[in-house]
Known about the structure:
4 copies of one chain form a homotetramer. By secondary structure, chain A is an alpha/beta fold. Chain A contains 8 helices and 13 strands. A 7-stranded mixed beta sheet of chain A has the order 7-6-5-8-9-10-11. In chain A, strands 2-3-1-4 form a 4-stranded antiparallel beta sheet, with helices on one face. In chain A, strands 12-13 form a two-stranded antiparallel ribbon. The A-D interface holds A 1-4, 6, 41, 107-108, 111-112, 115, 118-119, 121, 138-139, 142, 250, 252-254, 256-257, 260, 263-264, 268 and D 1-4, 6, 41, 107-108, 111-112, 115, 118-119, 121, 138-139, 142, 250, 252-254, 256-257, 260, 263-264, 268.
Amino acid sequence: MTSEAEASPYTARLLVACRDRPGIVAAVSSFLHAEGANIVSSEQYSSDPTGGQFFLRMEFVADELLERRDGFERRFAETVAEPFEIEWELRHRGERRRMTILVSRYDHCLADLLSRHRRDELEAEITQVISNHPDLEAEVRLAGIPYRHVPVEKASKHEAEERILELLAETRTELVVLARYMQILSPDFLARVGCPVVNIHHSFLPAFAGADPYRRARERGVKLIGATAHYVTEELDAGPIIEQDVARVDHRQSARELERVGRDVERIVLARAVMKHLDDRVIAHGGRTIVF
Amino acid sequence: MTSEAEASPYTARLLVACRDRPGIVAAVSSFLHAEGANIVSSEQYSSDPTGGQFFLRMEFVADELLERRDGFERRFAETVAEPFEIEWELRHRGERRRMTILVSRYDHCLADLLSRHRRDELEAEITQVISNHPDLEAEVRLAGIPYRHVPVEKASKHEAEERILELLAETRTELVVLARYMQILSPDFLARVGCPVVNIHHSFLPAFAGADPYRRARERGVKLIGATAHYVTEELDAGPIIEQDVARVDHRQSARELERVGRDVERIVLARAVMKHLDDRVIAHGGRTIVF
Amino acid sequence: MTSEAEASPYTARLLVACRDRPGIVAAVSSFLHAEGANIVSSEQYSSDPTGGQFFLRMEFVADELLERRDGFERRFAETVAEPFEIEWELRHRGERRRMTILVSRYDHCLADLLSRHRRDELEAEITQVISNHPDLEAEVRLAGIPYRHVPVEKASKHEAEERILELLAETRTELVVLARYMQILSPDFLARVGCPVVNIHHSFLPAFAGADPYRRARERGVKLIGATAHYVTEELDAGPIIEQDVARVDHRQSARELERVGRDVERIVLARAVMKHLDDRVIAHGGRTIVF
Amino acid sequence: MTSEAEASPYTARLLVACRDRPGIVAAVSSFLHAEGANIVSSEQYSSDPTGGQFFLRMEFVADELLERRDGFERRFAETVAEPFEIEWELRHRGERRRMTILVSRYDHCLADLLSRHRRDELEAEITQVISNHPDLEAEVRLAGIPYRHVPVEKASKHEAEERILELLAETRTELVVLARYMQILSPDFLARVGCPVVNIHHSFLPAFAGADPYRRARERGVKLIGATAHYVTEELDAGPIIEQDVARVDHRQSARELERVGRDVERIVLARAVMKHLDDRVIAHGGRTIVF
């Protein structure tokens, strides 16, 4: 979702999380008013209006915001964040996140993300694509993006993860996207990765968690197949869900045909999840997500 | 959309419309904070952040709100509404709108609304059903709702409209729903009705405006048929659209089958539009609607 | 799906199941041609073209078909069914199945089916509604349908099932529809019921099988909720799926709101499944269904 | 839709069109049986069972079919096609159509088709991409496909169309796909092109035919935007519709955002239409299509 004011260089997004209590919105909006900012959009959610967790996302425009950023942030910290014990983040339009894509051999999700990147649909810089296979190198290089081949053998899995962590650190990656990366990441890797990891699973979770979901969906005779984009956590296929969608199938379709239909769902679901994350619209909270 | 706090008797909705300028959200939320209210949800839209029209819908809870309503409203008028030249409305949860349904012979939309009314899905009191035919009287009376038969002949159309206006006035109707009412309302009627009129049109407007949309959809070979719920204006089938949806059809389906599929779309689209209107989520503005 | 020829009194449906081998379609269509029948629609499926199971559904029109039915069926048996070892069924348009609805307290699925019955959308005679509660009697009786109250207590469950079996036998029921019937039917009941039983489950099976699916869906943070219509088998919530659909939900919606959205999915999914079953379009085979 | 038998080299598709009369299916299926063929799938449609137009699509497998193709076709012509005055076509699996894509500057539909081509989802050989702009050359060449730049100026439109016709003839093109080609093709071009032309229009036709549909959709306040794939005829945006789909939008979305959402609908709708055409599932008849 993009407001009419999207083009302004002085648009910024303020993200707030704190314990819910009266007066937060008044404090934030009074502060923005005093700073001469005009609120463009505002979304909020409270897990429970009496004592739950409160989340706020505001887009606003303010003249010369970039030039007076330090003062703006210091004043917000002093007059709002500290009194209300708020966690917050301010992101200026144009501050693109640094994103790494991990992929194996299937290229449909990767191709979709690269194509959106070329059309400037993703508010991100793709710093590299890492793969355990060499197959997709030409496609990635044509897009002007570095391709890192990090093979993964059973015996070398630990070394491969170390190498990936190095590459993420070197590129100061702020988001990892698993675009059909067919390796399970270890708990140690996840503990050290230091940024969110978004995965696409090719089923309507929690149905058909684990391997080979299309074959199991076909055997169970479901009438819709789906895909789920979620944040990766230690528990396999159980992280907070960001986005899901489904497509209708019928008894005539072979396993191979279900895969083809499924690919179209997978790539749109992953793309929507990545776009929403980059737009600061997704908040993980208690095993679920709030999507503004 | 209903928040967790939906059951509280002290939940209210504040609706605000005014020319957009900085400080409105700050003023409203500071006022609510000062009154001890806790904001449960808040949605806003500006047609243009510099000088456009601004719309705000806030749900909040506040102790003893009903008991101190008059003072609350007077203080809001003085400290917020007058300085900002705001149009506003305050509706307490449980203040149900008085609604009249107009219907002809098709009962699928009517039956759907009555069924939702019985399950308490509509935040409304259905004060009467008016029809130009006697057919649906038993169904309506079983629901405990008065049924008014107002026949419409070509020569008596004016008298019929006068009678309907009387019935609306007597029941102090605040919303008229045309649930497949097959008469065109005159400009004079619309000028005098004094409340919003919601209609369901059995096509995906603006395609197939006018009569007999399913036959024309079939002849054109469209692959989806739709329905559109809109506010009625003088210009036929051109009022602001509240809700639309479609269903997939194919070449094998006869005109009669398209009608059957269409009925399922019509009733869900009308129901969603009515529920959103009753929940104060729809604002008509410049020929379009904002739906929070 | 209904062909243009739907209105003819001499339309019939021929259903065929047998081991797949060459020549079946030729034999059936040559027979129909010899009988002066015109094929209106034809659908077929083979689980494996070399030695799998073959299924065929043909609609055809033939003059005076009802008058010469016995001879037609005898000739089909002799010249086609016996040589090819075919299981088959012939149903003339207008031969309505006798259907019993079981319901508890929720009436949204029941009301939907009654409303379709009134509009003649169901090719069935509803012979009775059986409920373990008295609540919905007036609604059913208004539709001119007998209402049987068969209370179910823990101690009397066996007696209740016996009573239901009696009522099904007395009415020569050919289809049982569980329209949110909140009792689990015993294996003994299912072994003796003697006709298909269709159930609506309020989740996208196999996700959230068992009790309380909306609460669990909300806790898991899914972005779509669903409903599944399936044939009932001994294994709870595991019978062959006939139809499924989903609706989009978000984090703002309370458990109560999910239920409201879910009701709209449940009733359309159940209605579609019942209509397809009555139209002889559903074949259960190996734990799945073929839906023509 | 693909059957389990898709991999067999001896799978073929038989397409039949003729005046409907009894015995056609019997004749065709008896012929196939006599030739030792096993019918894998069969779909048929009659515009009117008494004297309308009849269409049949059968997939079958038969040993050594390619080797005995000539005799097979001659016998079909003599024993079935001539007596029944049938128009027919036989296509062997693996006989890929020769396809040309025309494109301007937007690459989302082109990239989608190229990506499917790489994954072997299209049963076609892409012989060339023709564009009135040079922009997309690198992308096309990476896919190993020739790129022809044919600039179109107002004065040179006729020459450009002549050049395109030459290129189509040289490559023996059997299908032209307009993947957001922003030039209107002249009646003369269409009369001489000699093969079907599929176009993607960025609205839910017949709504918003003509230029600038997203802007007009936004002004009209529709709640769904769509895309339509259709065969091109002389009358602009009025050719037989092959496929349509829609996506939900709301008041918050700018014209630019509608375009982004629209692109995702356009490319999936065009891809589905092209795949169905290549799979011989689309028959244009009387301004509409039959899609098996």
